[in-house]
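Job type: complex structure
Entries:
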Amino acid sequence: MLTNLQERMLQIREATLSAMLDVLYDILDDIIHVYVCQVDESWEPKCRAMVLGSFISFLLENDLYPARRRASETPFSIQKLYDLAHSAQILTFESHDYTGMAAHIRRSSWDPANVTAETFKNNGGLTQHKKCFGAFHLRSKLKTIYSDIGSAVLQSHIEHMDKQALK
Amino acid sequence: MWSSFLSRARPTPERTTPAVQCTVDTPEDVAASVEDRHVDMSELQPTIVLDDSGDATLLVGTDSAGLQPVQVSSTAMTLASPVWKAMFERHRKENGAIEVPLRDDEVDALYIALRIAHLRFHEIPRKDGLTIDALLELAVVCARYDIVKLVRPFLDLYGWAQCHYPDTDSGERCDPGWFYVAWTFGYKDSFQRLTRFTVKKIGLDDDGNAIMDDGQKLPKYMPPGLLGMRISIPIETILQIC
C-alpha cells in the first residue's frame, strides 16, 4: 500500500535503478558471450580483453561487481548512476589510422598517385576499435530509461492542490 | 516583539524524524490532538497579549522548551479556523476560563497565524521574511488548523513563498521542504516539477534512509498519498495523543 509521496518516489527510484542495472549486467553478459570486435576476427581476444577488463573495472569501482547488485542494495540516486555510467571510461583496443602516413607517402617519391588510406586498410592499416564498445549502446539505453521515468504525482495530489489553490 | 519570539531558544525540529501518516479527518480530532495533559503553572513564561480583552489563554509550545501563555480572543480564532472553533467549544464545556494547551512544535509559525487572526499585521514578517524551514512550518500550521484562507493574502503580499520557488533547471532552491508548502498552498506546477527533479536525486545513506545527492535529508512533513486526504503528523505527536 502506498502511503505517501516519499514512498512513491522511492519506488520509482528503485524501478528505474533496476532497469539501469539490468542494462549494465546485460552488457557485461554480452561482452562475455558475444563477438566484441567490430574490426576483424583476428583482433577478438585482445579487443574483448580490453573492453571486458575496463567494463569490469568500472563496475568494481562502483561496488556493482562481483556481486550483482539489486536496486534496493545500491545507495546511488538515478542521477548518480546515470552520470557514472555516462562518464565511464571503457577502453577499446588501440586504433590505428594510417591516413597520415598515406599522405606522407603521397608526398614522397613512392608512387604517390596510387597510395591511399584504403591501401593500408586492406592490409590491416586502418583499424578503428572505438565502435567495438559503442555497439553495446550503453549510453543510449540508459538515456532511454532516464528520459522515461514515471511520475510520483497522483491524481489525488493534483485534485487536492487544485482545491487548496482556490482557498 | 516579533523578534523576541523568533529569538526565543527552542530546539530546531529534526528533519530526520520519520513521517507517520495518521488519518485526522475532523476539526474536533485535530483540536484534540494538540491539547493534552496537565500543565504545571510554574513552568509558564510571561503572558503574550494578542488581545487585552481576550477571553482565552493558549499555552503554546512543548514541555522541553517551556510553555508560553498567550491571551487571545476565542471569537477571532473561531472565525478564522474550524479547528480552533472546535477546540474552544470543547473547552467551554469543561472550563469557563478557556485555557487551551497547544503542543505545537511550530511555535513561530503559529504566532504568525495568531497575529493575522488578531489583525496585528504590523507584527508579522515582511517581504521575503521567511526561511524555507519557517515557510514549511507555516504550511504545516495552515494545514493543521485549516487556515490557508487566513494566511494566503499575506503569503502573496510579502512573497514569503515566491523567493523559495524551486528552479529545477538550475537545481537551485530545490528544497524538499517545498513539497509540503506546495501541497498546502496549491502550487501544483512546482510540485510536479520538484517531484520529477527529486526522484532522480534520491539515494540512500548508510542506514538505508532516503537522502538527496547534495546531502539534504527529506523533511518530516511530506504530502500523503493515495488513500484519501490525510495529514502527515510526526511520530512524537502520535505518541502524545495515545
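Summary: Chain A is about 55% helix and 0% strand. Chain A has a mean pLDDT of 85.
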